[in-house]
Design a protein that fits this description.
The chain has 17 helices and 15 strands. The chain is of the alpha/beta class. The chain has a single domain, classed as Alpha-Beta Complex (Amidase signature (AS) enzymes).
Length: 526
């Protein structure tokens, strides 16, 4: 992990007078580049915010990524940032950088709903800890991004705000639950986002939208101000989810993940589960030094099929890495039982999430389990967890512990471990209210139940609490393909170094052409 304290100007960073009329090109602009440009006076913070607002006005009506805008507040913050830039005082690392925030995080005096109808007009009196940290670092909040109800699904349909669309193909979903977050970053509405992830909610949208995402180690970043759990004034039962929920960053490049994460990690004095852990001390590995890497490519998740587009993207990635001098070996941990991981994830998740649900709703979910086909592995495990039988819950926690030990041992044998993000890529986007039966999704010539088709390859690493970077690795059939890079627990610093090397070899972020080629049009029919 890199710490990013406020730094005075030095040497080549001596500021010039901002050119307020300069218009930054948002096509491939990153947060780290924007922060440097602002310090060097290439454009003003106000010009950058106005450029983002122009893109929001142009494309957000169709994409529906941002559902609450902070127009006047962002401009006022930009003018204050320009004043500080002109004075040359010590500057925080995100000063003037436009960001957006998933609507599951409380924002002071700004609507925060988590797409839950009783919270439709809720305005918190305090920021979530992660929001406060980025504000203190000088970030400019452009708005709040869309998500499914209570961040509870791998798609992005909200009962309050409707459907968010994928910027590469608006007929498709951006994934979820951080779907609006990934779209906002890919489309240039903002340059950084804070996301949450309990089963793939950062990684799946990052892959579907072609951006980078970091799910930090479980309990690395405080959850204070995240919804769920519900605020007490809305009947919240306090915290019920004690395992597997993680937080992190969505951005356009790995350097931005490092920048955003370094400002979020560590205890806040409220969330007592977050330990004061310093960056890990370990001998430099090839993944960090520039030497050729030994890379494990793990694609066999209990026989789960991959769609042809995802498989081709992974094959192309493996060939590119091999041509760059790295050794790529197809293998899987010999004693990591994926089916056991799915079962333990569902049991723990069903039990803890179920504790925060109304009893009648929990009983309905329990009742459907006997009628589910056997291939609904995750759904059956979730429904069984809703029973909350303490012996079974404790058994699942012990299974989790054994799987953590197995995965950590396997990770120690490789410089990088890569695996797919999901069996299939973005699928047709459509409203999915909780009352609707989820569809089966096509995966090549077969189909899988909805949860298995979306979460089969992300939930094992939610169960283990491992840090994971989702990285774009190329374009297949006009859509981005992503890969997961798995790290050892608490070693985000090493994971981000490895991810940075892989990004350089594979090319990284590309702006969605569906947006780029419409820049000059007066109307934007999808």
């Amino acid at each position: 992990m890199t710490n990013h304290p406020a730094q005075p100007f030095a040497g080549g960073d001596t500021p010039a007078a901002p050119r307020h009329n300069a218009a930054p090109d948002l096509g491939q602009l990153t947060a780290t580049r924007a922060a440097s440009d602002l310090r060097q006076g290439r454009y003003s913070a106000e010009a950058l915010v106005l450029a983002c607002q122009t893109r929001i006005d142009r494309f957000n009506p169709e994409l529906n990524a941002l559902i609450t805008l902070n127009r006047e507040g962002a401009l006022l913050a930009a003018r204050e940032a320009d004043r500080r830039l002109a004075q040359g005082e010590p500057l925080p690392p995100l000063l003037g950088v436009p960001v957006s925030i998933k609507d599951a995080f409380a924002t002071r005096d700004m609507r925060t709903t988590s797409s839950f109808r009783p919270l439709a007009d809720y305005q918190p009196v305090a920021d979530a800890s992660v929001v406060a940290r980025w504000r203190q670092a000088g970030a400019i909040l452009m708005g709040k991004s869309n998500l499914p109800e209570l961040a509870g699904a791998p798609h992005c349909w909200s009962p309050l705000f409707g459907l968010t669309r994928n910027p590469w193909n608006p007929a498709l979903t951006p994934g979820g639950s951080s779907g609006g977050s990934a779209v906002a970053v890919a489309a240039g509405f903002s340059l950084l986002e804070i996301g949450s992830d309990i089963g793939g909610s950062i990684r799946i949208p990052a892959a579907y939208c072609g951006v980078a995402g970091l799910k930090a180690t479980e309990n690395r970043i405080p959850r204070t101000g995240h919804i769920p759990h519900l605020p007490p004034e809305f009947g919240g039962a306090g915290r019920t989810v004690w395992h597997m929920l993680s937080f992190g960053v969505l951005a356009r490049c790995v350097a931005d993940l490092d920048l955003g994460f370094g400002l979020l990690a560590g205890p806040d004095g409220v969330d007592t589960a977050v330990p004061p852990i310093a960056p890990s001390a370990h001998a430099a590995a090839p993944g960090e030094t520039g030497a050729p890497m030994r890379i494990a490519l793990w694609t066999d998740f209990a026989g789960t099929p991959l769609c042809p587009r995802t498989r081709r993207g992974l094959e192309r990635m493996a060939g590119t890495l091999a041509a760059a001098g790295h050794t790529v070996t197809r293998c899987a941990p010999p004693d990591f039982d994926v089916r056991l991981a799915w079962d333990a994830f569902g049991t723990i998740g069903g039990a803890e999430i179920g504790l925060g649900m109304p009893g009648w709703q929990r009983r309905i979910l329990q009742g459907i389990r006997p009628f589910l086909p056997r291939d609904h592995t995750l759904t059956r495990a979730f429904a069984r967890g809703m029973d909350f039988k303490l012996r079974r819950y404790n058994e699942a926690l012990n299974q989790r512990e054994a799987l953590i030990q197995s995965l950590e041992a396997f990770l120690g044998h490789w410089d990088a471990v890569l695996c797919p993000v999901a069996p299939t890529g973005p699928y047709p986007g459509e409203p999915m209210p909780a009352s609707r039966k989820p569809p089966r999704l096509a995966v090549g010539e077969t189909s899988l139940p909805y949860l298995e088709a979306t979460l089969a390859m992300t939930t094992p690493f939610s169960l283990t609490g491992s840090p994971v970077v989702a990285l774009p690795v190329g374009i297949e059939d006009g859509l981005p393909v992503g890969v997961q890079i798995i790290g050892k627990r608490w070693q985000e610093d090493r994971l981000l170094k490895v991810a940075g090397r892989l990004e350089k070899a594979l090319g990284g972020f590309a702006p969605p052409p569906a947006l780029s080629h419409r820049e000059s049009r007066s109307t934007y029919p999808w």
